[in-house]
Amino acid sequence: LNRRLAEFGTTIFAEMSALALRTGAINLGQGFPDTDGPEEIREAAVRALRDGRGNQYPPGPGVPELRTAVTAHQQRRYGLAYDPDTEVLVTAGATEAIAAALLALVEPGDEVIAFEPYYDSYAACIAMADGRRVPVTLRAQEDEGRFRLDLDELRDAVTDRTRLLLINTPHNPTGTVLTREELAAIAELAVERDLLVVTDEVYEHLVFDDAEHVPLATFPGMRERTVTISSSGKTFSFTGWKVGWVTGSPELVTAVRSAKQYLTYVSAGPFQYAIAEALSLPESYFADFRSDMLAKRNLLAAGLEEAGFRVFRPSGTYFITTDIRPLGETDGFAFCRGLPERAGVVAIPNAVFYDHREEGAPFVRFAFCKRTEVLQEAVKRLKS
Ligand code: PMP
Ligand code: GLN
C-alpha cells in the first residue's frame, strides 16, 4: 500500500459488518436499511433491464432522464435552478462523487477543512488527492444533547493554503443538522476567503423535529463555488445500487467529470432510469419515509437511554451517537469489539471518524434504519 493510503486499513464498516455476520449479532453498525426501497422503483429497474435501456455504456454525465429528474428535484424543493446538460453529473454513489470532486479540485499540499468526526471516506480521498486534511471538531454539548460546530474554530482553521471546505449536513455520525445561521456563516467565510465548497447532503430527506435541511448552494455567492453531492442510497433505500449525483456550475461539474471519467467512466445504466422515477415520486413518499424513520429514531433513542447510554438525539441522518461513560465505559473501540458477545449487537466506535482519537473515544454510533421488531430486540438485549 502506498504512502497516501498506508494509514487507512479496512474500513470500519466492512470490519463491523463482518463481525455481525460472524457472531450473528444484530447489525446496528453499517448504515443500510433492512427493508428495500419501493416495489414500483424495483419494477422500473427490471423494466429498464428488459427493455434494453442502459445495458450498454450510458452517456458519461448520466442518462438525460435522471439528470432532468435531479434538476427538477433541486428546483422543486430548494428553488435551485440547474441545467441538466451542463450542471449535473451522475456518479457511482456519493462515494465516487466525493472522490472525484477532491481529485479534481485539490492540488497537492492544499488544505481541506472537514468537520471531525468525519465520514471515513473523506480522510482517504483527501489523502488520495494528496491534500492535507484540517479537522474542525464538532463538540459534544451535553446540555443541548447535540454536537455543535464552533464557528470561531472554523474561521481560525482557514489559512492561505486552504482550498476547500468539505461540509456534511445532515451530519454522519453525529446527526447534527447545520442551522440556517451556521450555514450563512460558512457561506460568508467561503466567499470572504474565496474557498471552494464540496457539500455532502446525502441525508437531505432525513431531518426531524423542527430541523430543516438548507443546501449551502442556496446562500449568496455560493452557487458558483459549491459542488453539491447527494445519492439515492439513503433517500430511496437502495444503498446497493450506487446511484449518486453532483450539481454545480458548469466549470465545477466539468472538473469533477474529468476525474469521474477515469474512475468508472460511467455509472450503471438501468438503475439510473429507475432512480429518475424515484425522484419523481409524490411528496407523500418523502414525508412517509421521514415519519417512518422518525418513529424508529424515537424507539431506539428511548431504548438506548433506558439501557444507560447518554443519547445525542439526532436532528438528521439515521444514526444515533451515544456516550458510553454513564455505563462506566471509556473506550468505544473495546466496547464495540465486545458488544456482540455481551449483548448480541454491533455498533460503530466513533473514534475511527476522528484525527483526535481521544476526543471520539467515548462515543458509539447506532443505526436505526432497521425494522421495528429488530430495533425492539436490540433494545431488549442492550437493556439486559
Ligand atoms: N456520505 C455520507 C455522509 C454517508 O453517510 C455515506 C454513506 N452511505 C455516503 C456519503 C456514501 O453514499 P453512497 O452509498 O451513495 O456512496
Ligand atoms: N454510510 C454508511 C455508514 O455510515 C455506510 C457506507 C459504507 O459502508 N461505506 O454507515
From TrEMBL:
This is Pyridoxal phosphate-dependent aminotransferase. NCBIfam families: PRK07777.1. Keywords: Aminotransferase, Pyridoxal phosphate, Transferase. It is an enzyme of class 2 (transferase). GO terms for molecular function: transaminase activity. Its cofactor is pyridoxal 5'-phosphate. Pfam families: Aminotran_1_2 (PF00155). It comes from the Bacteria. It comes from Streptomyces tibetensis. Its EC number is 2.6.1.-. Residues 25-382 form the Aminotransferase class I/classII large domain.
